[in-house]
């Protein structure tokens, strides 16, 4: 079964060895730089608002290899909606309760694809992504506030049947792709190794962002007049931004 067939059937797919080791090392150093710059933010919550003035982050999500994957799912006119590092520290990384991404997003229509870039090796021991195949065919389920355990979203779907759960095991540089309706989550990191992944939410330029959140950058192709206003890409300033190649 190829990636597109798996996505249609199960709601997710895996692409191996997408990004080179040098760029992944830069991404890993970027996370460490962000944590030092924003010590008040949990490392699992390095979210979209940080993208707006971060030249490296925009360079990373605009990498042609990632856009080539996104284009297979949403076509050639591609914008960024949001991006988020989930960096679970050793022994202290928070879980993410079962949820469907699209239920949280102000998108009309909810035509969007998520690429999950492994910055570290991602395993069951350090809290890898877990999915329930086939649930992308479901409508959005009720998400309820849940703080019974500390978790990233403080909410989730109750009563999920976990019997068909699949662990999405990735090497650094691999990418998984998942549908906005797919039920997924991840366990806490109780291992000795960090587990960091970068989520990238790509939309076709025909999808409207209906509330002023997210990081709307036009990354490939053409905008649709009157649909979204896109930001200018941030320009690197030495001493202000994370230093990177090029």
Please describe what this structure looks like.
It is a single chain. The chain is α+β, with helices and mostly antiparallel strands. It has one domain (3-220): q2cbj1_9rhob like domain (Jelly Rolls). The chain contains four helices and 14 strands. It has helices at 3-10, 21-37, 55-61, 64-74; strands at 12-15, 78-88, 96-99, 107-108, 113-118, 129-131, 144-145, 155-156, 166-167, 175-178, 184-186, 195-204, 208-209, 217-220. The chain has a six-stranded antiparallel β-sheet. A four-stranded antiparallel β-sheet has the order 3-11-6-9, with no helix packed on it. The longest helix is centred in the N-terminal third of the chain and has 17 residues, at 21-37.
Give unreliable regions as ranges. none
| Spatial extent as radius of gyration | 17 Å
Q: Which bin fits the share of residues in helices? A: 10-25%
* Main sheet strand line-up: 1-10-5-12-2-14
- Summed up, the domain count is 1
Instruction: Count every beta strand, where a strand is a DSSP E run of 2 or more residues.
Output: 14
CATH superfamily: q2cbj1_9rhob like domain
The largest pleated sheet is described as: 6 strands, antiparallel
Question: Helix- and strand-based class?
Answer: alpha+beta
Number of helices: 4
Fraction of residues in β-strands: 15-25%
Q: Which tags fit this structure?
A:
4-stranded antiparallel sheet, globular, 14 strands, Jelly Rolls, 4 helices, 246 residues, alpha+beta
Give a short summary of the structure.
The protein has 246 residues and is α+β, with helices and mostly antiparallel strands. Helices cover 17% and strands 24% of the residues.
């Amino acid at each position: 079964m190829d990636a597109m067939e798996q996505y249609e059937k199960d709601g997710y797919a895996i692409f191996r060895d997408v990004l080179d080791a040098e760029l992944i090392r830069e991404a890993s150093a970027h996370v460490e730089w962000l944590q030092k710059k924003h010590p008040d933010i949990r490392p699992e919550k390095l979210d979209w608002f940080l993208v707006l003035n971060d030249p490296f982050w925009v360079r990373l999500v605009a990498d042609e290899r990632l856009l080539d994957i996104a284009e297979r799912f949403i076509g050639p006119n591609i914008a960024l909606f949001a991006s988020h590092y989930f960096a679970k520290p050793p022994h202290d990384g928070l879980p993410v309760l079962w949820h469907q991404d699209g239920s949280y997003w102000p998108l009309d229509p909810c035509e969007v694809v998520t690429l999950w870039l492994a910055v570290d090796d991602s395993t069951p021991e350090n809290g890898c992504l877990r999915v329930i195949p086939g649930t992308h065919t479901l409508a959005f389920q009720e998400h309820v506030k849940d703080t019974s355990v500390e978790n990233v979203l403080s909410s989730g779907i109750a009563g999920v049947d976990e019997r068909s759960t699949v662990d999405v095991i990735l090497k650094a540089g691999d990418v998984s792709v998942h549908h906005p309706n797919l039920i997924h989550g991840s366990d806490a990191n109780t291992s000795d190794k960090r587990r960091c992944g970068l989520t990238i939410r790509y939309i076709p330029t025909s999808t409207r962002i209906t509330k002023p959140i997210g990081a709307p950058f036009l990354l490939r192709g053409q905008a649709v007049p009157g649909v979204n206003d896109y930001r200018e890409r941030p320009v690197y300033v030495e001493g202000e931004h994370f230093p990177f190649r090029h």
